[in-house]
Write a structure and sequence with these properties.
With 316 residues, this protein is an alpha/beta fold. 53% of the residues lie in helices and 11% in strands.
Amino acid sequence: MSKLVSQITLGIDVCKDELVICDWDTEAISTLENQAGTIKAWLQSLYGPIRIAIEPTSHYHLEVVEQAHALGIEVYLINPRQLVHYRVAVNVRNKTDPQDAWLLARYLAHEGGSLRPFKPQCAKAQRLWALLKRRATVVRARTQLDQSFRESKLSIKALSREIRHLLKRIDKHIQALVRALGWWADYQRCLSIPGIGPLNAAALVTAFHRGAFAGSDAFVAFIGIDVRLRESGKYKGKRKLTKCGESEIRRLLFCAAQPARSYRLFDNYYQKQLEKGLSNIAAKVVLARKLARIAFTLLTNQQSFKKQDIAYSQVP
């Protein structure tokens, strides 16, 4: 009679030079060099059904994640923000690499039923998202330089010109990748929405194709522009964004909210938020969330935004 093999649950804390691994069942702690060859040999030495919990750390986790997934091992990327709250909830006071690996293993062991395994995108899609984030880094650097040298006698006109040329090259690469991925039609659908520009459209299309979403609520939650409630009895806490997704998408959507007001119905919606007592920033966030919902609806239904055909109240 064959013996049933239980699933092995591992938590891996990732550092630049090494991996700290915790086996949930045996509580054994081991370390591994964070190098492709070492990781490959270790993964091939494992046997039985295995699942791994990893907290994304810069790009240092990618090697073990990609190799494990290629071997058919279930990999779960744990949101760092969620892990922080989980640490407090289970009363873990110390924070060391072995303790983090143990906490990741525990999180997967107890909460794995509500988690989705990691599914990597193709190389082109990964490059597209990397370019979007790198462009954001360049823009932030340009802003800091402009502010720093505003009252200086030193001129940075040549540097600013080079930065503009760099941004143009990045934009061309982004559009080329969108075409190469076969997402150009979806890209144009997003561009049809008032206020959505080339970068906003590229970010929305990339987010849309990063997973299978049950509806617009799930898409908004993935971006992290949904609202977290804190209420108990008569207590009504301040509502805040969850900010669980990529910050760059939220920034681009927020920037799109201002030009989106050029469309009368969007501006009316914005004014209604102000009448409710929301601040200008909060009203723009609400409008940005509406833009995300509209984009999801259009991409799902393979339609473009038509001002004369769509009644704004009918868009979820």
